[in-house]
Amino acid sequence: MYAITVKDLTKRFGDFTAVNNLTFSIEKGEVFGLLGPNGAGKSTTMAMLSTMLKPTSGQASVNGYDILKNEDDVRKSIGIVFQDPSLDEELTAYENMDFHARLYRIPKNGRQEKIMELLKLVELDDKKDNLVKTYSGGMRRRLEIARGLLHEPKVLFLDEPTLGLDPQTRNHLWDYIERLNREKGITIILTTHYMEEADKLCNRIAIIDKGQIIALDTSQKLKNDIGGDVITIVSPEKDSLYLAVKALPGIRNIEVHDSSITIGLQNAEKHVAQIVNMASEKGIPVDSLSIHKPTLEDVFLHFTGRTIREEEASSKDQMRMMHRIR
Predict the structure, then answer these.
(1) Confidence class of residue 319 from pLDDT cuts 50, 70 and 90?
(2) Which of 81, 147, 209, 326 lies at a C-alpha separation of 20 to 30 Å from 99?
């Protein structure tokens, strides 16, 4: 059974296409990741699936409800943790939870028990009476997740849930997300541009770039598609090196990037000396060389020809898109 189905979903802002004919489905109880750089269309996709933004064309359903025909039913059955903070800093954690519970008309007789259960789940029950403005970034994200679970949603949307957090807090939050999925069976769809986050949490990953899905599978299968080992060589004459290496036998795939080339092949250690000697004979300088097993970063390089961008969104198109969403 599918928790989410998407067919030819498209969103345009004037002449800018933020999401371009997306088609995919998510199983109930699955953790599904949308992985991509800032401005790729991840947040716009989430906004459409959560009914905050109407698509230009295409269809989608969440928990069996059409996102255009059954907006209220969709909203009642989902929880959302936004990329941008949405807590009231002048209220306590408990007051934030209570206010949200009243909005969702959670019965009074079970409201307090539910709030305390969720605050305990995210280990904030002992700080329930502290003002949110005194909370750290990680504590706020945990509170936002707890708040999103108050009405017992079938699907939880997490938009860049660990953006800006330090590595220790990020790992701590990953544990909560895994626990939610494992113990409560909630379907989770999350956007991220952190490779390790997608690798650790997601059953399947869709890599999205320029509004289109360019790869979709489990993390391991995506890595296996590259296969073997990956050699990365940094050289000021990368184009000459690319042409020279491409002619060698046993090269499975080779790609040129901004300042390096990546080579996919089996038993890389056996070929390193041959590649270095060949570069030396042709007078091609090599600044550095490394060997590793394929990672999601290599997968992204393979499909897009560049590394993933982890900087904050700054392009005019991205700013215009987010302004329209709000």
Answers:
(1) very low
(2) 326
